[in-house]
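queue> pop job 88
queue> type: inverse folding (structure -> sequence)
queue> payload:
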């Protein structure tokens, strides 16, 4: 199986953005045959809506801020409500509904985490271990994990964390199972991996629902009701409450 991991929000616990006080990590688990279908359909959607020449990358923050100076200029069409609604509707139909895949997610409530723990663990590493445990449980006999590179220091941290878990094991599985059932590969953003882009859009949608923006999402985002049907298991929300 292929497993594509991406994040939403940042893992910084020192300076918390009050407008987006969550960190989320999610994984899309899919067979090689189904991924071929997903990859083909995403490429068709990109060509249809963004005049893609093979270089366009779907990124949730750019789709939401299409005329921002940091956005690819081809996102500008998303500023038109009718166009935006058509794009999300087709994405829902061709990708979320028609492609067979599962998702697993972990969301960290950052303010609550800092209030509950004097020395909280890194949200990314905490979430990665949570996902890895469930990838083994709900994935295939072997799961090739892809994660996007985030910078030299953070890449070393993630690689070291995966190696650590391969030596000490995780909550439900001993180290030999981690080694034989998973492999981590880091990719460059410019590699334009469509599996990573799909989970990025899905995570952003779920985070917006959690932040109470569901009423504003109709025609402006994916359909969260369709996404919930793809869950392999209930989403982890941490911490759930303060003692």
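queue> result:
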């Amino acid at each position: 199986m292929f497993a594509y991991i991406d994040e939403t929000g940042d893992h910084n616990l020192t300076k918390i953005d009050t407008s987006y006080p969550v960190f989320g990590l999610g994984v899309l688990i899919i067979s090689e045959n189904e991924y071929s279908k997903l990859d083909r359909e995403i490429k068709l959607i990109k060509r249809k809506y963004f005049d893609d020449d093979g270089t366009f990358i779907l990124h949730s923050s750019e789709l939401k801020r299409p005329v921002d100076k940091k956005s690819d200029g081809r996102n500008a069409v998303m500023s038109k409500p009718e166009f935006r609604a058509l794009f999300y509707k087709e994405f829902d139909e061709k990708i979320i509904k028609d492609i067979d895949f599962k998702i697993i997610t972990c969301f960290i409530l950052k303010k609550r985490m800092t209030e509950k723990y004097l020395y909280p663990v890194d949200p990314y590493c905490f979430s990665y271990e949570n996902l890895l445990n469930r990838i083994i449980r709900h994935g295939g006999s072997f799961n090739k994990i892809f994660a996007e590179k985030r910078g030299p220091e953070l890449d070393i941290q993630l690689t070291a964390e995966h190696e650590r878990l391969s030596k000490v094991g995780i909550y439900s599985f001993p180290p030999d199972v981690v080694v034989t059932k998973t492999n981590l590969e880091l990719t460059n953003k410019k590699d334009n991996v469509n599996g990573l882009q799909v989970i990025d859009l899905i995570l952003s949608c779920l985070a917006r629902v959690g932040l109470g923006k569901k009423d504003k999402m109709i025609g402006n985002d994916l359909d969260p009701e369709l996404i919930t049907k793809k869950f392999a298991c209930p989403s982890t929300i941490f911490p759930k409450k303060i003692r």
